[in-house]
Amino acid sequence: MSAVIDVRQLSKSFGGVHAIEDVSFDVAPSTVLAIVGPNGAGKTTLINLLTGNYVPDGGSIEIFGTRVNGRPPEQIARLGMSRTFQNLQVCMNLSALDNVLIGAHLKMNDGLLAGILQTAALRESEAQWRAKARQLLEFVGLGSAGDAMAGQLSYGSLKRLEIARALIGEPALVLMDEPAAGLNPSEKLEIARLIQGIADRGVSIVLVEHDMKLVMSVSQRLLVLNHGRRLAFGATHEVRQDPAVIEAYLGAA
Question: What are phi and psi of 239, to 5 degrees?
Answer without folding.
Answer: -65, -35
